[in-house]
Design goal:
This is TRAP transporter substrate-binding protein DctP. The protein has 333 residues and is of the alpha/beta class. 47% of the residues lie in helices and 18% in strands.
C-alpha cells in the first residue's frame, strides 16, 4: 500500500474517532412506566433527538421509577445523578412553586411558548433549582375525578365527599382539602391499582388520557364533570450538564423540544376526546355538576391552585416576583 493512501486512511480514521468522541451524551429517566402513554410520548421525543442529533448529541434513557423513584427524580437531576428527567413539575413544587402556572392553566404549551411564558418559567427554574426547563410536553390535558360508586350531591348541588376515600397527589391536594373539605390519601401512581382493588381508596383524580393504560378503568365507574387543572409534564436538564453541551447540541435539543410541545399538545387534545369516548362506550358513566355548582367547582380548582402558588412564592426570597405575569401568560384570557 502506498504512503499517500496510508496517510489518507489514517486521517480519515482520526477524523472519525474525533467525531465519535465529540458526540454529547445525556442520561435520562422518566417518571412513569413505559406502558403509560405519557412515557411513550417522551420516548418519541428521545428518538427524534437521537435521529436529528446523530453524531452531535444522544439521549441515553436509564429507565423509569424502577431506577429512581418518581418523586426523587427532580433532585436526581438537580444533584447530577442523571442529566435529564421527564417528570411532573408538581414533584418539585416546594422548590419551584411557580410550576402551578401550568396546573392552573386554561391553555397549552403552544400558547405559553409563543407569548414567552415557558421562557419565563425556564429562567425561574434556573434561578431556583439549577435546572434548565427544556419544554412543557403533552400539555392542555385536563383532569377529572373518577369514582367507583355513584357520586352524591349536597343540598346546594355541590359534590359531596361523604363516603369518598380520595386518592390525591400534589396536583390537586389543595383543591380536595380547601374546597371539597376532604382528607385525601396521598399515593404514588404505581400504588393506585392495588389501592383501588383493595378498596383502600374509592375515588381518584387523573387526566383525561391514560386511565386504560393503568387499568384503573377495571374499578372506576363514574367520571365527574367538569374537568379541571392541566397536566404539568415536562423535561428538566441539569444546568451544568446543559451548559456543558456544545452549542449545536443545545440547538438541536431545544428545536426538537419546541416541535414536540406543539405536536404532543395537538395530538393529546384529540386523544383525550377519543379515550373518554372509549371509556363511555365501555360503560363508564358521566356524572355532571350543573349550573352554578359546576362553575363553583371549576373556579375553586383554579383559585385553590393560584392561592397555593402565591403562598409558596411568598416564602421564597424572590417573593411574588412574576406572579401576575405567570397568570397572564399561562391563561388564554
Amino acid at each position: 500500500m502506498n504512503k499517500p493512501l496510508i496517510a489518507s486512511l489514517g486521517l480519515a480514521a482520526l477524523v472519525a474517532t474525533g467525531h465519535a468522541l465529540a458526540e454529547d451524551r445525556i442520561t435520562a429517566v422518566h417518571a412513569f412506566p413505559p406502558s403509560l402513554i405519557y412515557t411513550q410520548s417522551f420516548l418519541e421525543f428521545v428518538d427524534k433527538v437521537n435521529e436529528r442529533g446523530e453524531g452531535v448529541v444522544r439521549i441515553e434513557v436509564r429507565g423509569g421509577p424502577e431506577v429512581i423513584g418518581l418523586s426523587e427524580q427532580p433532585d436526581a437531576v438537580r444533584n447530577s445523578v442523571v442529566d435529564m428527567a421527564y417528570t411532573a413539575a408538581s414533584f418539585y413544587a416546594g422548590t419551584v412553586p411557580e410550576r402551578d402556572a401550568m396546573v392552573a392553566s386554561n391553555t397549552n404549551a403552544i400558547h405559553a411558548r409563543e407569548n414567552g411564558g415557558i421562557d419565563l418559567l425556564n429562567r425561574i427554574h434556573q434561578e431556583k433549582m439549577g435546572v434548565y426547563y427544556l419544554g412543557w410536553f403533552d400539555s392542555g390535558v385536563s383532569y377529572n375525578l373518577y369514582t367507583i360508586n355513584e357520586p352524591r350531591l349536597d343540598g346546594e348541588g355541590n359534590l359531596s365527599v361523604s363516603g369518598l376515600t380520595l386518592r390525591s397527589n400534589p396536583v390537586y391536594d389543595a383543591f380536595f382539602q380547601d374546597y371539597l373539605g376532604a382528607q385525601p390519601i396521598s399515593l404514588p401512581t404505581t400504588d393506585v391499582y392495588s389501592a383501588l382493588e383493595r378498596n383502600i381508596v374509592n375515588a381518584t383524580g387523573w387526566t383525561q388520557i391514560g386511565l386504560q393504560d393503568l387499568n384503573w378503568d377495571r374499578f372506576l365507574n363514574y367520571r365527574i364533570d367538569p374537568d379541571v387543572f392541566s397536566t404539568d409534564m415536562g423535561v428538566i436538564v441539569n444546568l451544568d450538564s446543559w451548559n456543558g453541551l456544545s452549542e449545536e447540541a443545545r440547538e438541536i435539543l431545544q428545536e426538537v423540544a419546541i416541535e414536540h410541545e406543539r405536536e404532543s399538545a395537538e395530538r393529546f387534545e384529540m386523544l383525550a376526546q377519543e379515550q373518554q369516548a372509549e371509556l363511555e362506550a365501555d360503560g363508564m358513566q358521566v356524572f355532571r355538576l350543573e349550573g352554578e355548582a359546576a362553575e363553583r367547582f371549576s373556579e375553586a380548582a383554579r383559585e385553590a391552585t393560584w392561592e397555593r402558588m402565591r403562598r409558596q412564592m411568598e416564602r421564597h426570597p424572590m417573593g411574588l416576583k412574576h406572579y401576575d405575569e405567570l397568570i397572564e401568560k399561562f391563561n388564554d384570557l
